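Hi C.,

You asked whether I'd gotten around to modeling the 453-residue construct. I have! Everything is below, sequence then structure, no commentary in between.
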Amino acid sequence: MNSYNFTSRSIPLDDSWDVIVVGGGPSGSTAAAAAAREGARTLLLEGTGALGGMGTNALVPAWCPFSDKEKIIYRSLAERIFHASKRSTPHVPEKQMDWVPISPEDLKTIYEDMVLGEGASILFHTSLAAVETREDGDVDTLIVVNKNGLSALRARVYIDCTGDADLCFMAGAETVKGDGDNRPLMAATHCFVLANVDEYAYRHGETLHPANPKSPIYDILKSGHYPLIPDSHLCSNLIGPGTVGFNAGHVYNFDNTDPWSISKGLPAGRKLARAYRDALAEFVPAAFGNAFLVLTGSLMGVRETRRVIGKYVLTLDDYLHRRSFDDEICRNCYFIDIHQLSKPENNDQSYEETRDKLNKTSRHYGPGESHGIPYRCLTPNGLNNVLVAGRCISTERLVQGSVRVMPTCLAMGEAAGLAAALASSANRPDVHEVDTAHLRTLLRNYGAYLPGE
């Protein structure tokens, strides 16, 4: 590949921040709010025009479970967001805590109100372009790009909430994708919304989910009329009057860290959404005969890319034994939810055997069960003033299939933001030296669920 050397020049520098959060998804939003709540001068950078990530721009139509089948365990800011979001879907039963539909447009404002209300600043349509580091293991400056061109931003502590570990990767931290062997990642999903759905027929017809052996998806696949539809994955939720959100199908060989893969995958996802609309109109005409494809996600529904290697790597054994940790900053009860790597006819047998074994054994927790996520999973090796939160924290690959979901990201984001504020007040910020006992006390005081001592 040819190279190009920049002409020597200077760019504007803003070094007025204590904490800069990169990425405005669930973890980034709670991280920014929590840091600002402690009085840290906090800036949240978001590459799109709205906060919320998967629940807004990617149109994921429902929250993964907020309860351990007995009680809500994702509390404090996470619970605040959840209840505010739930008020925007008044058709949902009051007691329902799991798989609650999302109104994406309402959720955008809910996140903005929380972040701005706690005193953080937001810079939209601003993307990370480069990271300048110092020899001592500190990140010195972020180079960002937006309508002003290139500019530099400096803080005392940074939080990587990009989901893809972009900041850590650019700073030279150790990261891994998948199993580190260049095999495909978990397939992505391009979510979409159908409007003008006959709500009564949708509610009272056959359940679309593939767990129902009578789901219309099996007749659709058997018919051969819609070759773009690759498999039986078909999740849907009523997100508003006559409006159904879909988390359906898979876009294979998609890598959200590869701009060419993104540029190929999004058009394929849009065609796939159209195929679902047409197939449902043909096979479920009572509900979808007049349905209108009103929107596809501006972001792909991504399940995995890079993971950071941190001071501790959360293991499958930790998950299976419901392990607790002295430095845990939140709990997680979501099952290990691993999607295919490739189309069913091309599946990697060793990977699929592992997946099937987990499906049949211990991937689901019983009522009241959860495991801890230690603070050390948020601290990248080799970087002193950087924390990470979201789906790219330090875990084994199989466990990432559990901790990657939005409720868990909300909880770990708050912890990262609070820790960043604490670290930023030190003479020389070092996230590895944060007093985790004090951090846990503060989290509890804000309402976090951290049982035991």
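If it helps when you're writing up: DSSP finds 13 helices and 17 strands in the chain.

Thanks,
B.
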